[in-house]
Write a structure and sequence with these properties.
Blueprint lengths: L2 E5 L19 E10 L2 E5 L5 E5 L3 E3 L86 H11 L12 H11 L34 E3 L8 E3 L10 H4 L2 H5 L15 E6 L2 E4 L10 E11 L4 E10 L7 E4 H14 L19 H19 L8 H8 L3 H12 L12 E2 L7 H58 L5 H26 L5 H15 L2 H23 L5 H63 L2
Parallel strand pairs: 8-13
Antiparallel strand pairs: 1-2, 1-5, 2-3, 3-4, 6-7, 8-9, 10-11, 11-12
Amino acid sequence: MHLRARVMYDFDGEAANGELTIKEDEVLNILRQDVGDGWWEAENSQGVKGLVPQAYCEAVDGTQDGVSSPGSSVPSPSYDDRQDGVDEEWDYDEEWDGEPGSPTRKKAPTPQSQPQQGSNGSDPGQRGPLQKSTSLQVPDPPPLTPLQRSLAASMHGHSSASTMPNRGKKGRSSARQEHWPQESDDESSIASMPRRVSDSGLNGQGNYGLHGANRHMKRGGEVKTGTVSKTFKSRFSVFAKSGGEAYLLGADTKKRHIPANTEVRIVESDEGPMWEDPGGDWRFTCEITNPKKESKLKGMKSFIAYQLTPSFNTGIRVSRRYKHFDWLYERLSEKFTLICVPQLPDKQVTGRYEESFIERRMDGLQRWMARMTSHPIISQCDAFQHFISCTDEKQWKVGKRKAEKDELVGAAFLQTITPPDTGLEVAHVETQHDNFAKFVKSMNDSMVVIQQTFHESRKRHMGPFKREYQKVGQSFNAIAESFEIDTRPKSVRLTDAVKNTGKTYEDIGLFFAQQPSKDLIPFEDFLREYHGMIQTFPDMIQFHKHTISTVKECQKQREDQKMDFEEAESVKQRADVVSYAMMAEINHFQDERVRNFKEAMEGFLTEQIKFYQNVTAKLEDALGKFQDI
């Protein structure tokens, strides 16, 4: 059950920044408390989700276990305490189962300098019978690193105030200057660097390597104050969620054991950085066949199970449901922040057991599996290998738990990468980054157009084209019927030839209706698959963009002698890992794109040639009937 909270102040959220507009006395469902920087992810009564300031909300009765009712402190669970993975028993059903605006307040609050006491004069931590207020107690996070202090001091030059601004335009403007760093149009790392806070607040690093909130709240009619800071335009960005900032600034000091078999190398090639081949005959396929309807709980739950057979061991037969594929997708997309992991085929609520849907889904899963097995990193990772090869139920659960507890996910996975020794020039990296960003946008736009074109062509083949050719055939049949009155031998041969022409055009109409399943539909599915792949790159591009901005800012700090050379160089080295990984994935994608489009176009044109050859053969046969008269 989600935490429920009541809104104490109006807040005009900016949708572009992922914020939610809320009104006083509105009741929200709090979906996440681990966003950081004094922000919560919430859902309103209309089902709209977004970020809200934690300081503007108070818990109400009927909250989740472990969360207190109004008047008590509301704990914020850490990122590591969230529930990972899926239920151990796997018994859920596959389908069901601008500028940053400052928070708006009704009054201009003032900070309370005196500690609050209950009416009985007791310590403020002991609530008396008439006490009206309490404070949120939040543990101090770790202190800022020297690098973070240096960057924060140079970018902000002052401590954050502990109060919220007035609602007026003047107040909003001053709030931006007082509470948040100025954000440039290119989302430079100035907006993403840690910042100092006042001594009365929290000093240190919050969730995902971000800054913690400074809040002081009271109940009843007394003043409530708090601050929230913004370090990204979108708090849902992959850069924030995956710990990218902590990795770049060296704030992620957690020691992790990196097994030798998980080390990833990037090598230079004629076409640029590439993922190193695992060695040997690593390429393999995994065939998905034999969809079968099964059930559990004495028939109360039904599902479709597919048989997986990897080519490296044809003796292995594993049975996997769609929800198992969904689990694997979640593991891979969480682990590989800078690797393209396309989404699975869409779910469907109705008609899940219809043969046509099962066949289409199996084809989509096969395409997705082929994409995974062709990647030198994904195909060798433990979770993927476990998924396609584990046949023992107990071992499956052990491997599943191990994958869900994997610490080398997100930005932490970058620690396993060994790039080439050659350092990268920021200008060269930025040029390649911008070129690929333009390529992705252009390809995405063209994909929308060509998919729509093929969809409309398919409908015309199966509808108007079929009807038009059959209408022509029927008209030939009609005139042939009138010729039957004349029974002379030559006339009879002519009548038969005209009838044959009518049947020929009716058959051609059927050819048009049947042809899409051979060329248009497969190519449309291929385009849809690549469109889904392209849509995974904007988050990767944004991650890399933040990385480049951070390096440029550190270089500027070093030139101004506000940062040690060693600190700036360590950031540059970690940024090179990100850039090398990004370029290796781009080169892998481009190589696969050339190969895949070549094969797809060859297949499409081959079927088109066969189609028109069949039409030509039919017409030539009809022509021969007249030549025999």
